[in-house]
Every structure is written in structure tokens, then in C-alpha cells.
Amino acid sequence: MTEEQVKKIEALRVKIKMDEEKVEREFERQQVGMADRKIVELVALERRVMKNGDTAATQVNELVEVALMALLGGLEKVMKMADCVRLETLKGAVDTLTPMQCMDFLAAISRVQIQIRKWGKKHDKKLQ
């Protein structure tokens, strides 16, 4: 790689690190939301209602569904943020490299993905 490419890759690395930290902070925020006192109390209420066969079970169940949908929406946001960071990383690297370097880079990524998949399949067979 040329000196200019090295500088661009280093700048990309710094930017991506900052973006990853944003994703991590948002993920932590979502995790705290899942353990929020209101959610825990709502789940405990649902258990009591279901155990006692209370007529309010439907209403409590609906409240739980609404709370879960909000949590899932937050987690979806985190996943999309992470996908954007991965895409920016790939685009930044490809934009910096020459066409031949891109081919080598993408081929190496493909080999790693294949090896990880093979390892995963082998690991899954051991667990069965």
C-alpha cells in the first residue's frame, strides 16, 4: 500500500472506531431499557395475572406486547446502525484500494467467511 492509502485507512479506522462506540452506547442503552424497573414490574404483573386467571389478563398481555415491540424497535435500530458501520468500513476500504488490491481484499474476506462457516458447521455437529 502507498503512504497515502495507509493514511486514508488509518483515518477510516479512527472514524469507524468512533462509529462503533456510538453503536455500543446505543446497545447498552437498549440493554438498560430491557432491565428497566417498569418492564420487570410489567412482566411480574403478567405472571401474577396469568397465575390467578384474572380477567385483566388480556389487557396486561397487550401492555406487555406494546412494551416488547418498543424494545424490539430499539434493538432493530442498533442492528441497522451496526450494519451501516460495516458497510461504511467496506466502502471506505474499497474506495481507498486499487482494483487489484480490492480483488485480493475481497477474496481474503471470502476465504475467512468460508472458514468461519465450516468451523460453525463442524461445531454444530459436535453439539448434536
TrEMBL record:
Gene Ontology annotations of biological process type: DNA-templated transcription
InterPro entries given in the database record: Seed_Dev/Stress_Resp_Reg (IPR051886), TGA_domain (IPR025422)
Domain DOG1: 1-126
Identification of the protein by name: DOG1 domain-containing protein
MF annotations from Gene Ontology: sequence-specific DNA binding
